[in-house]
Amino acid sequence: MIGGGLAGIAAACALADRGVAVTLLEKRPYLGGRAFSFQDSESGHHIDNGQHIYLACCTAYTGLLRQLGVLERTTLQRHLRAVIVDRDGRRGALSAAPLLPSPLHLLPSFLTYPHLSLGEKLRAASAMLSIMRTDRTKHREVLEAQTFRDWLVRRGQSDQAIAALWDLLTLPVFNDTVDRVSAYMGLMFFQDGMLAGRHSADIGVSTVGLTELVEDAARGYLEARGGEVLTGRSVTGIATEDGAVTGVVADGELVPADAVVAAVPWDALARLLPAEAGASSAPALEWAPIINVHVWYDRPVIGEPFLAVLDSPLQWVFNRSHIEGVPGPGQHVCISVSGAWDFATMSRDALRELFLDEMARVFPAAAEAAVERFTVVRQVNATFRCTPGAQSQRPEQSTAVAGLGLAGDWTQTGWPATMESAVRSGRLAAEAVFDDLERGGTSLASP
Q1: Is 376 helix (H, G, I), strand (E, B) or coil?
Q2: Predicted pLDDT at 40
Q3: What do you get for the CA distance between the two ends of the chain, in Å?
Q4: Residue 73: burial class (beta carbons within 10 Å; 0-12, 13-18, 19+)
Q5: Which range has the worst mean pLDDT, 34-43, 127-136, 160-169, 332-341?
Q6: What are phi and psi of 226, to 5 degrees?
Q7: What is the pLDDT of residues 397-436, one digit of tens each?
Q8: Which of 20, 72, 383, 438 is deepest in the core (most CB within 10 A)?
Q9: For residue 435, which phi and psi values (nearest 5 degrees)?
Q10: Does the pLDDT at position 447 exceed 60?
């Protein structure tokens, strides 16, 4: 197993459950991939590299957490509720009514939503019905050739409706706006997420650091099943003979193996793969950036666990003190900024001025509070982009080389770059290489 992110962990656990002796190799000193946490040197706090959430429809991800015995270290809403404010202080919410069936469960909050006019609400409801009625699989080619914005505009969606509703939900999921996301993937999220059921869009978060959530649990799970986890080991190639995997080259040494799952980013994959695996060129995918701004105030400045801010660089603001159960008197706030091309290269001082001023404008309590600590976490290569045509670039988890599987949220899972997609890819890759092992009649051993 090459790579100890969620995709690699999911694949390793799935193979271990089938009796495969798994060796997981990870170049970093910790597991988790892009979902990790670290200790801030100045404050001493452990913070995540990015504010990760999951939805109740993310059944593969929650299944992995349950498998590892750590699901109780996350919290999931009983019913969807997301507060949305604008820069003028108007507050609304998108929430699920407990007794109404989907999609009517969203109707009461939608009717009172202050950020859309009555006409925009009626047209948005009509577009929602169109989403529910569209067979995206049947029309995949057409939907993949256009942006989600184009699809919405043809259904009467105004710029205000796109900003206050469609982009509000699309941007944090895809790390991209509706004018860049394909219509196929935009429909996928609303069909399988927002509108799939009364609880499908309930929001969950980890109450502990992301490394703490999975590191020890995954290591213990694999070791209890005869596996081995080796961190700080860099893999530079995959060895093959006669069209089948024979091992991997790690730190200059050949590690023999009957099967290999490569759970690495697409732009790191080509230099590992043998020629027969189709390594002549990397998939034509693009990266999108995320930044997370962490602010420690000397007093509470927001009351909700999280909320969204319209027409503002703040985007989504998370009350980390509340989420982690850390008592006052201060408050740790995380501002999650997706599609952060405008901010990823700004200096720390410029970001500090911009975001602290914006917090003070939107939240009056922040204007009165003292800032005890400020830091920025940048992820320039955070997620792949679901632009029109990108789906055709995502490879399947099986390859032309016997015993070689690919995993990663960027592989063909039908989901955007999420923790859910990563886990699904790992399970699919495990199935692919296990089938190869069975067909080849080899012993059940795999790094």
Answers
A1: strand
A2: 80
A3: 5
A4: middle
A5: 34-43
A6: 85, 10
A7: 999 899 999 999 999 999 999 999 999 999 999 999 999 9
A8: 383
A9: -60, -40
A10: no
Assess contact for 21 and 226: CB atoms under 8 A: yes
Dihedral of alpha carbons 170, 172, 174, 179, sign: positive
Mean pLDDT of 296-305: 97
Report DSSP letters for 292-350, one per residue: EEEEEESS----SSEEEETTSTT-EEEEHHHHHT--SSSEEEEEEEES-TTTTTS-HHH
The DSSP 8-state label assigned to residue 393 in this structure reads G
- Cα–chain-centroid distance for residue 50? 10
The answer to whether 221 and 215 have CB atoms below 8 angstroms apart is no
Distance between CA 361 and CA 10 in Å, rounded?
Answer: 43
Instruction: State residue 45's pLDDT score.
Output: 78
Contacts of 257 (CB under 8 A, 6+ apart): 23, 245, 246, 247, 248, 403, 445, 446, 447
Pairing of strands 46-48, 37-39: antiparallel
Say which residues have a Cβ less than 8 Å from residue 140's Cβ, sequence separation at least 6.
184, 391
Q: How many CB atoms lie within 10 A of CB 119?
A: 11
Could you give phi then psi for residue 115, rounded to 5 degrees? -95, 5
Give dist(CA 243, CA 401) in Å, integer. Answer: 5
Q: What is the pLDDT of residues 82-100, one digit of tens each?
A: 999 999 889 999 999 988 9
**Comparing 442 with 47, which gets the higher pLDDT?**
47
Instruction: Count the alpha carbons within 13 Å of 61 in the hemisphere toward its beta carbon.
Output: 25
pTM of the predicted structure, to 2 decimals? 0.95
Cα separation, 264 vs 250, whole angstroms: 14
d(CA 382, CA 348): 19
Helix (H) or strand (E) holding 250: strand 244-250
Query: Phi and psi (nearest 5°) for 354?
Result: -65, -50
